[in-house]
Each structure stands twice: as C-alpha cells, then as structure tokens.
Amino acid sequence: MHQSLRPAWANRFRSIVIEGPIGVGKSSLAMKFADRFGYVPMMEAPQENPFLSKFYRDSSRYALPAQLFFLFQRIDQLRDITQRDLFSEYIVSDFMIEKDPLFARLTLSDEELALYQKIYDTQRPQAPTPDLVILLQASADALIDRIRQRGVAMEQNISEDYLRRLSEAYIHYFHHYDASALLIVNTEQLNPIDRDEDFNALIAQISNFKGRRTFFNALNDL
User: Could you tell me the sign of the dihedral formed by the alpha carbons of 46, 52, 53, 59, in that order?
Assistant: First the structure.
C-alpha cells in the first residue's frame, strides 16, 4: 500500500502489537491489519514448534522445550526485523517478547524457570518499543468456546485451568504495563475479524486514541 493511502493514524502508530491469550483472535486481527493497511506482519508460528502438541498433552514434561523453542523463534524474528529499516516500514505483530516469561512462570518448575530466565536475560535482543499495543480480552469460558470451534487439533488438549490461569496472568501483566500506548478491547460482544462494522469501530478507537491507555467495550461504545 502506498503511504499516501494509509489512514492518518498510521503515521502515529507505525509499529503495532496485537496481544492476548490463546483463542482471543490476535493473529487473525493482526493479519487483517496487514492486509487492510499494508503493514508488514511479524507473526508467531506455533505450528513450527515440535513440542507444542506434546506440551498440551503433558505440560510438566514438555513445558521447558516448548518454551525455549518459542523464545528462540521470537528472538530470530526480532533480530531480523531490527536489521531492517524500521523507519520506512509499518509493522504489525501478534506477540511481544517482553511477556514471554509470563508463560514460563505458569508452566515451569523453579529449577526450569531459573534456567529459562538465564537464557532469556542473555539472549533477548533489544526489541523496539511498539507505538501501540492492542490487548484483546475475553472471559476464559469464551476462549474455551473459540478454541473448540476453530478446531485446531493440538489445541483441543489445552486444559481449562491453564486457560483461566493464562487469562489472569495477562490481566495482571498489562495492568502494570506502561511502555507503550495501550488499547484494551473487550471482545465478548465485538468481532472485528469477521464483522466489518466491528472492525471499523475498532479503527475509530485507534484514530481517536488519546493519552496512554484506553478501554473499548462494545456494550458501552457501540
């Protein structure tokens, strides 16, 4: 997309991260941003992790290798993107490496966590701070329903308890997050992926964004 065709807000938010727990729709929304506004997508690739399906079946045994695979995958992606001309590109991503330890603390033993943290501290690249983080939220029950409906085989073994603890961990992490502008979106009644009117309402929130933190709840704002 030619720069002149992008909306005015894109110059303010050249780097966007869309975050949220498993099943909330962050990857699909990130790709919609990439397609609609010509952003370069930097996406997680869970299908490439050979330990992930095993982790969902036996978390205690496969948590560490699954976590380390994701860590190095994200490190490689960030190193690649930092070597490019960030000032001439618009980038949208469905992950931020700073929240990677959130998953580790949920699943690793104390000894494994200490090892992971040492690797994380020594290997993590200095990633550029995004201009905007869009945090998608949904109840654990809604996440469970969405995961069941989308029917990815390995995800069907995710435990409900893990999803609930993950949702709580996200809420706690972003309650204290202040590195970037943060738009928190309640997706219980909002479907910006499949409904263009909801997507346009989300874009209006971005266009009118003021300050450092804004909440968007479709029940109140639509």
Answer: negative
Q: Which residues pair with 214 in a beta bridge?
A: 183
For 33-51, how does the pLDDT look when each residue is reduced to its tens digit (9 = 90+)? 999 999 999 999 999 999 9
Mean pLDDT of 92-114: 93
pLDDT at 211: 87
Sheet of 15-19, strand order: 40-42, 91-93, 15-19, 132-137, 181-186, 213-217
Domains of the chain: 3-221 (3.40.50.300)
Count other Cβ atoms within 10 Å, centred on residue 47.
Answer: 10
Structure-block tokens of residue 85: 């001309």
Joined tokens for residue 54: 């095993």
The gap from C-alpha 11 to its chain's centroid, in whole angstroms, comes to 21
Of residues 94, 145, 196, 198, which has the active-site annotation?
A: 94
Please check whether residue 125 is in contact with residue 75, taking contact to mean a CB–CB distance below 8 angstroms: yes
Provide the token pair at 89. 């590109």
Tell me which amino acid residue 204 is: A
pTM score of the predicted model: 0.90
Give residue-wise pLDDT tens across range 174-220: 999 999 999 999 998 899 999 999 999 999 999 999 889 999 986 54
Q: Which residues contact 80 (CB under 8 A, 6 or more apart)?
A: none
- How far apart CA 28 and CA 32 sit, in angstroms, is 6
Return the closest-CA partner of residue 70 out of 104, 42, 111, 106. 104
Q: How far apart are the C-alpha atoms of 99 and 75, rounded to whole Å?
A: 13
- The verdict on whether 94 is a catalytic residue reads yes
